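Form 7-S
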Amino acid sequence: MILPARMQFLMNRLRERLWVKPMIACVLSVAGVALAHLVDSIPIDWKVPEIAQGSIVDLLKVIAASMLGVATFAVASMVAAYASTGQSATERAFPLVIADDVSQNALSIFVGAFIFAIIGLSATTNDYFGKPGRFTLFVLTLLTLVIVVLVFVRWVDSIARLGRLGAVIARVERAAAEAMARRTRMPCMGGMVAFGPPAGLAFHSQASGYLQRVDMDALQRIAAERKLRITLAVAPGALIVCSRPIGYVLPDGEDAGTIEPDLIAKAFTIGPLRQFDEDPGFGLVVLTEIGSRALSPGINDPGTAIVVLNAVYRIFNAWTHPDFSVEPDHDRVEVPPLSLDDMFNDIFPPLARDGAGVLEIALHLQWVCGELGRCGDPHLLTVAQRQAGEALARSAAALDFAPDLAQLRRRHADYWEPGGAQHAAHHTEFARYDNAAKNA
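Output:
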């Protein structure tokens, strides 16, 4: 089921809160015990087996005694995984790790089973159920045990990977690719393309922070009701300050309504942190941070930086030319398209700077830029060639061994000089590190 953009944004924020799913599980647990009592009040001659009260009590005691310890262990394991994420990857990836469905579902089931056992035990020992109610509670108890065992087995397999560097890179790559795919389908978030210098009355935000999302439906509704045209000066991921306008409003005819910039500004969600949902560049920035940390002298892990570069290549290789001919859903709102220059500047200069003296990184940077330049997009070709040239210049200043520099120059020439040929070894090298990323 495809949710509206605003609902999806709110659901993603709730997924980043650990208390939401356990709270739902607790409510369902109470409802399960209430259901067992409700069966007693239905005037039907239930043909069910007689379940001894003692057997139910014993089962519930086992669940109550074990689930609290298991839930505590689950929380400790998750906290350790979250701490590992910040130390080995980057703090910016924390929301993606904490939103792991398997771990949240496991914690919710363990806490919910504990609450179910406590409430069911209290009700059973006080003769709260009749024969149908005891049978219903017995069935629910067995079902709870089965669910707990299945969830625990699956969770053990997942917690072994949660927080590991390879898993974190995969999550960040998936988030960036999904955001990029959304912007490919809707290059301007469903609005018109903003061309030329903006015109009209500027409006500002009273809050400062990062732009997390834009309510395009609200802007379209305001513009249609008042016969206005709205041009955005920023896109999700931009740093908003009070002194700079976030957009412009232009009357669309003589019968245009009153312009209320403060009302329009309410369609912009601004927060202290960037979010992955509508900001493709943020995922690329987080990947770059992971790669730069791996290249720091204290860690010295070029393999992780190469895995990051492979992820960047896959993201842009799957990026197709945005179809600006698609009829926009919001024809009164103009939005600036994604800037390839900005995204490439967020990725390649930091990695080229930190890996300038590492031949493996320098060679792979040339490979990624060269292959992206062959995707058929003239703008992508121009940007990739510039980044490849800058990376070569950084490495030329950092590499002291002449044969290494000569090898790097040959790699650069294979892609960017007339008559350069692509070697099969390039593909072999990429496949080797790509398999390493998948197995990490």
